[in-house]
Design goal:
Protein name: Transposase
Order of helices and strands: HHHHHH
Number of strands: 0
Shape: extended
Organism: Cellulomonas bogoriensis 69B4 = DSM 16987
Pfam families: DUF4096
Oligomer: single chain
Strand content: under 5%
Length: about 130
């Protein structure tokens, strides 16, 4: 199931971008770090099926949803996803498969620095306050 969710080609592109795991203390008796590819498969499973982390098939993947979530957070903080995006775009460009003639740009996910500017004052959607008659 892992190879189905994370094909070899994707894994070969992503693995070099992942941060190295922190070394374990010499006498650490806790669990060993679980496989990164299995964690990525769990992340893809959640995205593909639109389920919560609790529904990651632990028996099939060998990792829990919590592990997948933690790994997603770790990789996001390390900037893995923008690096992967750049690498894939560069590969498409090198193969002549990136056609910028037909594209759209969406800035809705870009954070407005210093609060940005608004064109109008926000209005309250709450019911109008009624004066007390006491």
């Amino acid at each position: 199931m892992i190879e189905e969710l994370v094909p070899d080609g994707l894994w070969e592109r992503l693995a070099p971008l992942l941060p190295a795991a922190k070394p374990r203390p010499r006498l650490h008796h806790g669990r060993h770090r679980l496989d990164d590819r299995a964690a990525l498969a769990g992340i893809v499973f959640v995205l593909k099926h639109g389920v919560g982390w609790a529904h990651v098939p632990r028996q099939a993947l060998g990792v829990s949803g919590v592990t997948c979530w933690r790994r997603l957070r770790e990789w996001t903080e390390a900037g893995v996803w923008p690096q992967l995006h750049e690498a894939l775009l560069a590969e498409l460009r090198a193969q002549g498969l990136l056609n910028l003639d037909e594209m759209s740009v969406d800035g809705s996910h870009v954070r407005a620095l210093k609060g940005g500017r608004t064109s109008a004052h926000p209005r309250s959607t709450a019911a109008a306050l009624v004066a007390s008659t006491t």
